[in-house]
Amino acid sequence: MALQLDGGNTIMATEFIKLEISGSSNLATESYVNTAIINGGGGGGADLTNYHNKTETDALLNNKYSKSETDTLLNDKLNINNPQDMSGTLRLGHIDGLSKIILNGVASSKDFYGNGDSEISSNLLVASLDSSGYIKGLNIQSNTFNALNTNDILFQSNSDTYIQYDVSETKIVASKLIQCGGNLTTQEIDM
Questions:
Q1: pLDDT tens profile 88-106
Q2: Which ranges of 67-133 does DSSP label H, i.e. alpha helix?
Q3: Where are the chain's structural domains?
Q4: For residues 157 and 164, is the Cβ–Cβ distance under 8 A?
């Protein structure tokens, strides 16, 4: 531990020290420090049963235990088999922006990665939605549908195309009967 004195009453340290008032001194007494060390670094009488001690930590890091033994030890401390609900706000990476959440996966280059099905029971606001599969919904609302490449855009019902934008011909092809209940304006009609 580094300790600096500024010539006044200020003491700067790189580690946390619990200070107790003992007589005329504001520094922890030697007796208090010795008791804290004996108790694993906490204050006298601190409940340390919810923490790993150095021996347990070293054994976990050095693969001394089998997977089932490690899982049991961790569950005893972390309660992973009976997770608890949390109220409030969980903020990750709000300072340096480097946090990731990876669910059911080993690693990912993405900031949020979930390997499995997801459910969001309310609105999802995204700046961009990319899909390597398909997007399914009861109602899709958009101002623009753009294929962003040279592929045709197809409107289908159960794989049956009823309207197609043909990119190579730059025209819209309707393969079903079109019914118009109002005015129809066109430049050309081919029959």
A1: 787 777 778 788 888 888 8
A2: 67-78
A3: 3-38, 51-81, 146-176
A4: no
